[in-house]
Design brief:
The complex is a heterodimer of chains A (94) and B (140).
Chain A: E1 2-8, H1 15-25, E2 30-33, H2 42-47, E3 52-57, E4 62-68, H3 78-90
Parallel strand pairs in A: 1-2
Antiparallel strand pairs in A: 3-4
Chain B: H1 2-24, H2 33-39, E1 98-102, E2 116-120, H3 121-125, E3 131-139
Antiparallel strand pairs in B: 1-2
The chains are: A alpha+beta (94), B alpha+beta (140).
Chain lengths: 94, 140
């Protein structure tokens, strides 16, 4: 599980905000930001807007499934939708 | 007369009994006079007097050989990152981006307690896991 904090109000994210993000929600998974030296939001430009979850086959790096949660915080999150799918995949389902 | 008769009877019976014994129990075929001679050695001869010392003198212990050194841990071979074109839709190949932050593969602690450093999508591949969940968030 990789959690990417990809922008701070549309701009790059400093490390202090990543720390605050992780500590506030007590995130127990890999949590990263774009390298600040780049001073761009490369992940936002490449992977797309927030509340998206990619289920990725690490052998091929193909996106097996993509889930979009509500950016308004209404309805099931992308994580909630994707967890069921990843459990199916890990159990050998297709 | 009666006594003589009894004696004769006993003497006559003796060879019969000996013959019966020799018939029932045959002597060992490998019995030799030498074997009998060994058995006849005096009991107080020490064993060391009968053994010729021929052992080679014991040398110093050989130095132990060093353990085979295992190669340093290396990342599992997953090959180069798949070529593009890349995209962010279902069925696309997700691009290899580099980041920095906290790598937490075990999920047993809050990530800020772990070392901070560089990582990438290729590094995620090299964990050897089958699948990854990649989630993007923004801060407002």
């Amino acid at each position: 599980m990789v959690e990417i904090l990809e922008s701070n109000t549309g701009g790059p994210v400093p490390r202090a905000q990543l720390d605050a993000w992780v500590n506030t929600y007590r995130i127990p998974v890999t949590a990263v930001i774009d390298p600040p030296d780049e001073r761009v939001t490369r992940t936002l430009m490449t992977y797309g807007v927030r509340e998206s979850l990619f289920v990725v086959d690490l052998r091929t790096m193909r996106i097996v499934n993509k889930y979009n949660g509500s950016v308004a915080g209404i309805g099931p999150s992308s994580i909630t939708q994707g967890v069921t799918r990843i459990l199916e995949l890990l159990a050998g389902g297709m | 007369m009666r006594t003589r008769s009894r004696l004769l009877s006993a003497l006559c019976a003796l060879p019969v009994a000996l013959a019966a014994c020799s018939t029932d129990v045959a002597p060992p075929s490998n019995t030799t006079p030498d074997a009998a001679a060994v058995d006849a050695l005096p009991a107080d001869v020490a064993l060391a007097d009968l053994v010729t010392p021929v052992d080679v003198a014991e040398g110093p212990d050989a130095a132990p050989k060093p353990d085979v050194v295992a190669p340093a841990d290396t990342a599992p071979t997953v090959g180069p990152y798949p070529a593009g074109p890349y995209g962010n839709r279902m069925g696309n190949v997700l691009a290899n981006l580099s980041w920095e932050g906290y790598t937490n593969l075990e999920g047993s602690t809050v990530s800020t307690t772990l070392p901070y450093g560089p990582t990438s999508m290729q590094a995620v591949r090299e964990t050897g896991r089958a699948f990854a969940l990649v989630h993007v968030s923004e801060f407002f």
